[in-house]
Amino acid sequence: MEYRPLGRTGVKVSELCLGCMTFGNTTEPEDSYAIVDRAIDAGINFLDTANVYSRGRSEEVTGEALKRNGKRSRIVLATKVHGRMADDDPNAAGTSRRHIIEQCEASLERLQTDYIDLYQIHRPRSDTPIDEILRALDDLIQSGKVRYIGSSTFGAWQLVESLWVAKELGLNRFICEQPPYNILDRRIERELLPMAETYGISTIPWSPLGGGLLTGKYRTENMPEEGRYLDTDSKPWQMRLTQGAFEAVDKLDPIVAEKGCTMAQLSLAWVLGRPGVTSPIIGPRTMEQLEDNLGAIDVSITADDLAKIDEIVPPGSNVSPFYEADFGTPLYRW
Question: Is pTM, for the whole model, over 0.85?
Fold first, then answer.
C-alpha cells in the first residue's frame, strides 16, 4: 500500500480510502467490523463516512469498529456535515454555524472519539456565505475537536473563493476536496484538478466505480435481477443508465481481458494513477468486494491503456449524466 500526502498537512494517507456509507444499512454491523479490520490489515489508514449516511448509523458502526480493534490512533478518520438529520426541523440541515457545530458534537459521540481528523462540508450552499462556514470550522479546529477541514463536490471557483476568504480572515483553509470522478465522468479534469494541484489541495474522488456501472455488472443485454438501478422509485439512479455508459463499459472489456483483472480493478487503478488524485474512496458492501478493490493497487496502467481509455471517454468529458442530479438536487456545473 502506498501512502500519499494529504494536501499540505504532512499527514500521509493510504492510496485507497475506505468509504463507510453502507455500514449499518446494506452492510450488517458484524460484516462492517470485519471489513474495517481487513482494510486496516491491508494497509488502509483512511476511513470516510458522513453524519447523513443512514442518519448517523454509519458513524455509529464505524466508531464501534475502531473501538473494537483498538486502532483509532492509527486511522485518519473523516466525516462530513450538510445533509438533513431530521424531517421536522428546518435547521437540521445545511452549513450554518449552528448546524455545523451541533453536528460535529453529535458525530464525535457517534464515532466514540475525542477528535475528527478531517471534517468536510458535504455540499456547497448558495444560501450560506463561505465566511460563516469557515469561521465555524476554524473554531472547531481551535477547540481541538477537528484537526483538518475539507469540502465535497465543490466547484473550482468555490474552492478558490474559500481560499481567498480564509487568507483574508486568517482562518484555517480547506486542505482537500471530494469530487465525483471516474472513467465515465471526467469533467473535473477541466478546472478542478488543475486548480487543486496549483493550490496544494488533495483530491479524494468519490464513486470511482461510477456507482457500480464500472463493475461490469450492468449490461444492455444482461441486466441483473436486483440492484440500485433496478429500483423503479430511484429515478436519479436510472437516469444514469445511458446508452453511452453501456457502450463505454463494453469497450473497456478488451483492456480488462488483456490485463487479466476485473473491470472494477481497472477502473480504480485508472483513478489511482490520475495526476492530482490522492486517494479514491472505495465503498465495498461485502468482504468479496473489498478484496477485489484491494487488488487494484497491483494493476499497472500503461500509456497504451490510457490512450485507449481516452478514445472511449475523451479527457474532460462524460458519457452519462451520473452527476447532473443528486436525488433531485442539482449539483455544481463545470
Answer: yes
